[in-house]
Amino acid sequence: MINGDVTSIFGENVFNIPTMKARLPKDIYRSLIKTISDGERLDISVAEVVANAMKDWAIEKGCTHYTHWFQPMTGLTAEKHDSFIQPTEDKTVIMEFSGKELVMGEPDASSFPSGGLRATFEARGYTAWDPTSFAFIKDHSLYIPTSFVSYTGEVLDKKTPLLRSEKAIDRAARRVLELFGKEPKRVISYVGPEQEYFLVDKKMRNKRKDLLLTGRTLFGAKPAKGQEMDDHYFGQIKERVGAFMKEVDEELWKLGVLAKTKHNEVAPAQHEIAPIFSTTNISNDHNQLTMEVLKKVADHHGLYCLLHEKPYEGINGSGKHNNWSIGTSDGELLLKPGKKPEHNVQFLLFLAAVIKAVDDYSDVLRVTVATAGNDHRLGAHEAPPAIISIYLGDHLTAVVDQLKAGKGVKYEEGVLIETGVEALPDIERDTTDRNRTSPFAFTGNRFEFRAPGSRQSIGGINIVINTIVAETLCEFADQLEGSINIHKDSLELAIKTFKEHERIIFNGNGYSEEWVKEAEKRGLPNLMTTPEALPYFKTKKSIELFAKQEVFTPIEVETRCEIMMEDYNNTLHFEMLTMLEMAKQEILPACLKYTKFVTDDIASKKAIGLDAPKELEKAKRLTALTEELMERIDELDAAASAVPSEDAFETGMYYKDTVIPAMKALRVTADTLETIVGKDYWPFPTYTDLLYLI
Ligand code: ADP
Ligand code: MG
Asked: What is the pLDDT of residues 299-313, one digit of tens each?
């Protein structure tokens, strides 16, 4: 970009609406737009023409390949590239891309996690074009966003169920809106994900096996200066970081991502990027792209981007704030209070639906943020606790309390004239003092789910939010259909719901000990770790929910849960082995070498009659700690050799109860040694090097 005009580059690498319009015949363009906006099936003859236009456009922009871009359950994206070449009879090639190639691909699915689906079903899978998310160009390939399913139709990815959950919320919300006399074409869920990350010098990172292999530091003593000064949040951006951020923005804009906000975060070397919100499906694709671009561009600047939830112990970790809302295709935001009492009744009903959904399914929602990395964050006084609750803010809470107390609702001849909630529009302005310790906070026209981890795909999270809210809206519609006074009945239902679910509302300090006790009294689940939380994804209630809303079949719930458990176990497995390797091959030899340096020094002093009592003390302490280090290594070795492998959930509990404590103990000893061993002897960069030398 030569000047500051973003409009000149925005979306230049996207096969977006203006490009479609310019390159497709009118009738083809129209039917493609219909598919995009109304979800109508696309004819293969239309796909044929679209494929050809896409290919010509991509070739003009330097592409030689295309790829079906999909989102397997690893939480990452996957791609296999095929060139456009097609041999001819005279032994030359032409460039071709058929409608069939656009619509369907057949990657070998056997190496992607399937949670046992593979044993039961055909190993192969296929990818299917998602026309609702635009194709784009990256690194000389045409990227086609796709769903990924097995040959028997079971989903193997995060996109397909997300699309299904969008349908579920659309169906359910329209049923409720119809009762209010509204018939929008569609109800859409929106997400704006705020993404936190750390930057580290690439050369430093490459010297640390833990960062290289696991994305987080498994050792490291607390630096002299941590985040106590609060001088980094919104602080001045360093020049090198600024150059990186500029390139990230430009790359994202070219890809049509609405990158909007960037700033320094609380911890040193921690930053955030946030786009303007879009539909959940697009937002999910764009967040995946954002994570890729952050990694790629960091490399250009000699940096490495850490997306791990907890790269450094004792320093805030990184999350992803999932701002979620629903709105109609006519532009009405359903979680935004209106100006008239009857508009507010509809708002209160939707608000009640979210409150009930989160309370009824708080365990399932908790599971969506259960990962090995996020276990370090939740409840560690830097991110929300593992207890799910909702923050409504003082203003809205006052309104809800008033309604619960039966005040302020007036009807005349059956017509609602006043709800006592006329002040609701002010709520939008009442968001500045919002509570950062709440996992699920109402922020004026949306809910901000603050528990997700930085590295997570937002797919899994929003599948669940959409599904549980859809379920509650269906229950509401069941109860209200046939009502002859919809405003009165809706308001009564909303008030009843507020009363029944008041335990989930908490406006206080979510980081406090008192809240943990209070939540227990209220009967709210506190699922501290991933192995404890995951089984709640496959309860009878959860299986029925997903089946009813047509988001997951029972077997898909089972397998998804299994995959999440395996992911936790694999993460712990690699962390455990990396820790042992670093301790045995790097830390222990460093300690022995340094101890020898000290004892040699003592011996040479003794030889000339000098006494060195303090140095002797140090040598003794070093020896004792080094012995302790070896003991801790043996203990972790022993734990590692007894990991059960029959059942993934049993393995998970073993990692939590036996391996993690042994890892923590080893770390404590090694970190203590780091503080007394000479810096020149320590085998890898320290926290100060990693956090401040950028
Ligand atoms: P803060 O850091 O104060 O939470 P930001 O402006 O950094 O706020 O991020 C807020 C995010 O919420 C942005 O991505 C924004 O586009 C998104 N957002 C705003 N309104 C909505 C809405 N109605 N639905 C979903 N996301 C929204
Ligand atoms: Mg922000």
From this structure: 999 999 999 999 999
Strand partners, 447: 324, 442
Residue 115 half-sphere exposure, CB side, CA atoms within 13 Å?
23
Q: How far apart are CA 679 and CA 148, in angstroms?
A: 50
Alpha-carbon distance values, 643 to 66, 424, 531, 650 (Å): 43, 56, 15, 9
User: Which of 252, 323, 447, 450 should be mutated for ligand 1, with most atoms under 8 A from CB?
Assistant: 323
Choose between 378 and 189: higher pLDDT: 189
- 235-294 residue pLDDT tens: 888 899 999 999 999 999 999 999 999 998 888 999 999 999 999 999 999 999 999 999
> What's 319's DSSP letter?
B
Which of 187, 194, 427 is the pocket-test mutation for ligand 1 (most atoms within 8 Å of CB)?
Answer: 194
Nearest ligand to residue 450 Cα = 1
**Which helix or strand (DSSP H or E) is residue 175 part of?**
helix 159-179
Say which amino acid occupies 556: E
Centre a 10 Å sphere on the Cβ of residue 228 and count the other Cβ atoms it contains. Answer: 6
**Domains of the chain listed by start with CATH number:** 6-157 (3.10.20.70), 165-413+424-552 (3.30.590.10), 568-692 (1.20.120.1560)
Distance between the two ends of the chain, CA-based, in angstroms?
A: 26
pTM to 2 decimal places: 0.95
Q: Please list every protein residue whose CB sits less than 6 Å from any atom of ligand 1.
A: 190-192, 194, 261, 274-277, 321, 323-325, 333, 445-446
What pLDDT shows up at residue 120?
47
Task: Please give the distance, rounded to the nearest whole angstrom, from the Cα atom of residue 277 to the centre of ligand 1.
Answer: 6
Given a cut of 50, is residue 517 above it in pLDDT? yes
Burial class of 240 by CB neighbour count within 10 A (0 to 12, 13 to 18, 19+): middle
Expressed in angstroms and rounded, the spacing between residue 447 Cα and the centre of ligand 1 is 9
> How does DSSP assign 519-583, residue by residue?
HHHHT--B--SHHHHGGGGGSHHHHHHHHHTTS--HHHHHHHHHHHHHHHHHHHHHHHHHHHHHI
Centroid of ligand 2 to alpha carbon of 273 (angstroms):
8
Cα(541)–Cα(562) distance, rounded to whole angstroms?
Answer: 17
Q: Is the pLDDT of residue 432 over 50?
A: no
Residue 323 CA to ligand 1 centre (angstroms): 6
CA dihedral sign, ordered 310, 311, 317, 323: negative
Distance 468 CA to ligand 1 centre (A): 22
